[in-house]
Design a protein that fits this description.
Blueprint (H helix, E strand, L loop, with lengths): L31 E12 L10 E7 L5 E6 L4 E7 L1 E2 L16 E8 L2 E7 L4 E10 L7 E9 L11 H5 L9 H4 L9 E6 L9 E2 L2 E2 H18 L3 E4 L9 H10 L4 E8 L9 E6 L6 H10 L2 H4 L10 H31 L4 E9 L11 E8 L3 H7 L2 H30 L1
Parallel strand pairs: 1-5, 10-13, 10-14, 14-17, 15-16
Antiparallel strand pairs: 1-2, 2-9, 3-4, 4-7, 6-7, 8-9, 11-12, 15-17
Helix pairs in contact: 3-9, 7-9
EC number: 3.5.1.28
Enzyme class: hydrolase
Catalytic activity: Hydrolyzes the link between N-acetylmuramoyl residues and L-amino acid residues in certain cell-wall glycopeptides
């Protein structure tokens, strides 16, 4: 299983599944090796006896999956690399190694190597990326920047930010591959769209953000009654950046991500409930307009997500979705089945693809449900009808149950 995710200011790159040229133009083969002549640790500013921002650059012979997180006692930066061979590379030969209290690396389990950088105090990750190597070097350049923070802002592994950069452990059996570990219920992230200074679609005094928050609360109650754990991305009228919503889901170890919307399109252009899964190539007019409505909300806060993924990672992200995408599509089909049995009207094409940012995560099955369109009188009436909302919530909860059982069965078959 090869997983990768690129969220906020972090980009993880996955090696090609088939042989092909690496960034430097040479064929890939075997483990990636470290080029210390094009690697370094650098500190920003003058040494005044206090922790300074640090930049770590490591040149390796080919891009690999990695995960980044922090540990405390003492403060440490940990980077796990898949298929990197550190043998023969001495930490003392890394330029700038003396800027940190301690530095070590090596193999820690089959197929994985680990680099541990002891830090002079608490830090936070500000940027991480993997790009083609520079300065005449071959392969890939792994670069990250960390900056000093107060102790109460130091996030170690297992908390919200560290989970953003952590790769799941490989599934060793069907139970591990199935959603919801045996020691806890299935965990569902519910994401009411928009919020705060981004009200979403508006029709008179009605805002999409408020309507979705209300429906999310009702859906959460149904899921809880059905025995699931619910992880909301927002509980009030606050603005949550798009990719932060996925961070919250990942930090809570969500097994499924459901985003809720009720948008606005020109009269007669769209009506009825639809379920969307990730499709970067979706090109119908309504979907393009919806993508423009969903994603620019982050631009209001100065976050331009359009350039967070480099060109190489765009391709590799698709490879990482080879397992998760069918599971997302499988859940969408269960939703349609349950809604039909409940007599809930849907769009004539109920399951569709779209390049919505909240669907980008390749490690968590994700769907976006357009419950209807505020610009359509019939949809608007449904959204304010208690019976319709209750019936729809119950149908979605049943879909989660059916999908979970089917997912476990499929995981067992794939192992045989």
């Amino acid at each position: 299983m090869r997983w990768l995710f690129a969220l906020l200011l972090i980009v993880l790159a996955l090696p090609a599944l088939a042989e092909g040229p690496k960034p430097g133009g040479h064929p890939r083969s075997g483990l990636a090796r470290v080029d210390l002549t094009h690697s370094a640790i650098a500190a920003e500013g003058r040494d005044r006896g206090r922790p300074r921002p640090l930049d770590l650059t490591l040149t390796i012979s080919q891009p690999v999956p990695y995960r980044v997180y922090f540990l405390d006692g003492p403060p440490r930066l940990v980077v796990d690399f898949r298929e990197v061979d550190f043998s023969g590379a001495r930490t003392g030969d890394l330029t700038g190694a003396d800027l940190v209290p301690d530095l070590r690396w090596g193999r820690f389990r089959p197929g994985w190597s680990r680099m541990v950088v002891e830090l002079p105090g608490p830090y936070a990750l500000r940027r991480a990326q993997q790009v083609p190597a520079r300065g005449g070097a071959q392969g890939a350049l792994f670069a990250l920047r960390i900056e000093p923070v107060d102790q109460d802002e130091f996030v170690t592994r297992g908390h919200a930010l560290s989970a953003l950069w952590d790769l799941p452990q490989p599934a060793l059996d069907a139970a591990a591959a199935a959603p919801g570990p045996a020691d806890r219920p299935l965990r569902i992230a519910i994401d009411p769209g928009h919020g705060g200074h981004d009200p979403g679609a508006q029709v008179g005094a009605i805002s999409e953000a408020a309507v979705m928050l209300g429906f999310a609360t009702e859906l959460a109650e149904e899921l809880t009654r059905a025995g699931f754990e619910v992880l909301p991305t927002r509980k009030d009228d606050s603005f949550i950046p798009l990719e932060r919503r996925m961070t919250i889901a990942r930090a809570g170890q969500a097994d499924l991500f459901i985003s809720l919307h009720a948008d606005a399109l020109p009269a007669g252009e769209a009506a009825g409930l639809s379920i969307y899964t990730w499709n970067q190539d979706a090109d119908d007019r309504a979907t393009r307009e919806l993508a423009m409505r969903h994603d620019p909300s982050d631009l209001v806060s100065g976050l331009d997500l359009a350039r967070t993924d480099d060109q190489v990672v765009d391709v590799l992200m698709d490879l990482a979705r080879l397992e998760t995408q069918p599971r997302s599509e499988g859940f969408a089909k269960f939703v349609v089945l349950e809604l039909r049995q409940a007599g809930i009207g849907m769009h004539r094409q109920p399951v569709r693809g779209a390049a919505f940012s909240v669907l980008k995560s390749p490690d968590i099955p994700s769907v976006l449900i357009e419950l209807g369109f505020l610009t359509d009188p019939g949809d608007r009436a449904n959204l304010f009808d208690p019976d319709w909302r209750a019936g729809t919530s119950r149908a979605i909860a049943r879909a989660v149950s059916g999908w979970a059982q089917d997912d476990i069965a499929r995981a067992g078959l794939s192992r045989k």
